[in-house]
Amino acid sequence: MTPFPELQGRHALVTGGARGIGLACARALAGRGAAVTLLGRNIQTLEAARLSLAGEGITVGVAAADIAQAAEVAEAFETARAARGPIQILVNNAGQALSERFDRTSAQLWEQMLQVNLSGTFHCTQAALPDMLQGGWGRVINVASTAGLIGYAYVSAYCAAKHGVVGLTRALAQEVARKGITVNAVCPGYTETDIVREAVDNIMKKTGMDEAAARARLAERNPQGRLVSAAEVADTVAWLALPASASVNGQAIAVDGGEAAA
């Protein structure tokens, strides 16, 4: 692989990096020259992802942490920093979506959605930002969701958390605008990931639909009539990491075929 010069020598850390959008982001950033660290909860899954990328000629580091735990995040970021230098690009991709009718949503489910999707983004950004401030350059890219822009029934806790991520993005972007750092969110629609596969299983269980019909129900929300690919989301993330995107700050960019524009 011949890396592009734009991100040569930049250290990018991707949370939830072992699969789906996170793994695609790692591939896209490495392809543009970044030194990449994958972060996730399960070291075995991370090692499997590392070996998979190695088979493609991509070398990455791994670090394990539960992003909902600030102490674990701080330790994992220090491990990544020691191996590959200051963290200059942070992709807050780790997330989880659980579905439940609002009146049946337990306090535990509510807190879990906030901890994983919103507080995790907070912890990781706080851990990475000092490197960016010291270096006078940085990119924070939050993988939110169209659920951070519009509402969806039966995922109120997830929507609340992702709206929070978009709000955090916009607020922090204002704080660091004069410091060489940009903060943006990418908001995918239904994307070919484990979360969508779980949604398909849930639809099948509750409606009796077969897999093809359940997938079609999700795809029909996209005006293009299809699911988004992880690579499409990753290419948007990688573009936001480039020096050429320096004037793009505080934005929530939908990658959804036009769903949020309706």
UniProtKB/TrEMBL annotation:
<dbReference type="InterPro" id="IPR050259">
    <property type="entry name" value="SDR"/>
</dbReference>
<dbReference type="InterPro" id="IPR036291">
    <property type="entry name" value="NAD(P)-bd_dom_sf"/>
</dbReference>
<feature type="domain" description="Ketoreductase">
    <location>
        <begin position="10"/>
        <end position="189"/>
    </location>
</feature>
<protein>
    <submittedName>
        <fullName>3-hydroxyacyl-CoA dehydrogenase</fullName>
        <ecNumber>1.1.1.30</ecNumber>
    </submittedName>
</protein>
<dbReference type="GO" id="GO:0032787">
    <property type="term" value="P:monocarboxylic acid metabolic process"/>
</dbReference>
<keyword id="KW-0560">Oxidoreductase</keyword>
<dbReference type="Pfam" id="PF00106">
    <property type="entry name" value="adh_short"/>
</dbReference>
<dbReference type="InterPro" id="IPR057326">
    <property type="entry name" value="KR_dom"/>
</dbReference>
<comment type="similarity">
    <text>Belongs to the short-chain dehydrogenases/reductases (SDR) family.</text>
</comment>
<dbReference type="InterPro" id="IPR002347">
    <property type="entry name" value="SDR_fam"/>
</dbReference>
<dbReference type="InterPro" id="IPR020904">
    <property type="entry name" value="Sc_DH/Rdtase_CS"/>
</dbReference>
<dbReference type="GO" id="GO:0003858">
    <property type="term" value="F:3-hydroxybutyrate dehydrogenase activity"/>
</dbReference>
